[in-house]
Protein 1
Amino acid sequence: MTAMIYPTTNPSATETMVVARGEGPYIFDKAGKRYLEGMAGLWCTALGYGNEEIIETATRQMRELSFSHMFSGKTHPAAIELADKLAAMVPIENAQVFLGNSGSDANDTLMKLIRYYAAASGQPQRTKIIAREKGYHGVTLASAALTGLAPNHTHFQLPFDALGVLRTGAPHYYRCANPGESEGEFVARRADELEQLILAEGPDTIAAMIAEPVNGAGGVIVPPDGYFESIQAVLDRYGIILWDDEVICGFGRLGTDFGATRLNMKPKMMACAKALSSAYVPISAAIVSGDIADVIADSATQMGVFGHGYTYSGHPLGCAVASKVIDIYQRDNLFEHAAVMGRYLQSKLASYIDHPLVGEVSSIGLLGALELVADKATKKPFDGMKVAQFCAAAAEQNGLIVRPLGGNRIALCPPLIIQEQHVDEIDQKLRRALDSTLDWVTREGLK
Ligand SMILES: Cc1ncc(COP(=O)(O)O)c(C=O)c1O
């Protein structure tokens, strides 16, 4: 081990891989072994590695202006261009954009903006946020409190109460439906539970509900048909804002510009990061509708300042790269390409439901997951995560990167630039990994 404290890692584990370089959808380790990056890094390297246009844009921007802060109204052309580009493409009216560095800080910023908005609009009590079980929104104190996954909470004494975080159920039909409940009945129950929570807490104390279009780190949970329409109807009844966490789904992942478009969400706030720059450099965007931004601006004008900003808000490098990345997405029709490749990936994944280890296949666009179970008929889960970890390690041995998630789910999220032969490669290598996992599980008597 080096002097590093690794993020989201078992501190007693040794280093598992030294990634030396990347090229297109592939990465190479120190020994030169090639892996197809079936997870786009951490759901982010949408354009793959080594894109010369981006490298050139970054170099030019660093030569021209390597830094400018944005405090006190100072700005620069790359930031203005990016904000305008984002505002024009998001499904939010008169959108206004605040720039940061990570998905977590975008959600933190939105948490502050919504509290500021509540105070400025004469409803200072309206600050509670509804978040969902199995949601993932980041790891700063505020965004971790919104996250609905136990490992991100344990020992951190997160400010759930201070931040007014309320929790509602995940849209996971396979794991959360009652016996005999249809998908439609499950959706209606989730909407009713949400409404009961709102009524119990007092509707005028609740500002927003945060949701990923498809839960990523919580297991790649594709909500059943009609889920967001039902949730949106409840929120609209009580004037509660839908806060859309697009950190994974934004920029083509579901085969559309944003997850909100694909799943018919009507957000007034949105967090973006990851594919915003295809992860070439860190940058995030916290986006709010014009009516929210106007109220905040009026109030801040009276006070003299809006007291929130990062040194690296609107960093010129991130802005120039993100702008170029968006141009490439649009010029090369990559969201449509992702839809086409997504359908091909789904056609392959669908057959995995016949594998003796697979209890659920979930997929939409270029995003997918398999849940590995001890008993398919009863949905009996395996303990811990070791079966998914074994499977991911077996895939890695075959030259494919996948991600083991809680609940023994194997996630797939390849770069948007992949072609049919890469999907075929994922399919062959994943199937081999699953078969060796089945052998191991059988040998160990786990099944
Ligand atoms: C949906 C979602 N929101 C927020 C985040 C946090 O982003 P970051 O890791 O850049 O802070 C993530 C990270 O995976 C995410 O998947």
Protein 2
Amino acid sequence: MPLALALVVMVSSGVTAFSLVSVKDEIQIGEAAQKEVRAKTPELTDKAVTSYIRSLGRRLVAHAEGPEYPYSFSVANYRDINAFALPGGPVWVNRGAIQAAQNEAQLAGVMGHEIAHVANRHSAEQLTKGMGAQLGLGVLGALLGGDRSLGAQAARLGAQIGASAGMMKFSRDHEREADEKGMTYMSRAGYDVRGMAEFMEILREQQGRDPSSVERFFASHPAPAERITRLEREAARLKQGGRRDSPDFQSVKRRLARLPPAKPMPKG
Ligand SMILES: [Zn+2]
């Protein structure tokens, strides 16, 4: 069986979690997606806030496995609670998520989860599945042939991903893995891993109070109830204790509270 055909068979039967998208391709797709997201997202540029988010992100990334992706951390000036990751490194956190968190460990939980999607190449697996299922042999052929550079296709795929960013849906297995790995990074970075489950509790309360502000989050993540039970069980298995908060986090919260209020995310 020719190599291309063998791979297609493996993809369509879903035997293994592997990817036809190279790390280089993934980064290229992510760059195109990031360009698209940047163009349509009101980015919070307040230096104190952005450098805080970057350093928290870097602290977690230092404990992540996988390829050395060019991670970046940006804050969307939206009031909704949401966060998402693009292929190959870019991570976005909504201002609403920072403001909803009560301590740094909870925010580290949100960011650890997104970093885990990147580090474990979930987008590459999704893209591989999508290519096998929808795009067919043409794209696979192009991917497997020549120098394996996606070129124009990377730009197109990236733009598509960027256009629907924040609504990207990973599989349940990917979500579970992102929770587990995210908690591991938190633990290694010295945080109290219970922060992740606590943040889910905040989301659940918020859903009762103001459903529209968490609509986007729940469109792309599993229901909080089952997630909380699982997160608590897993947290009990990891090292207990750890850092819960920092003066920097609280100062960022105070700073955000003084800025003009953020807008809701556009619907649709
Ligand atoms: Zn997720």
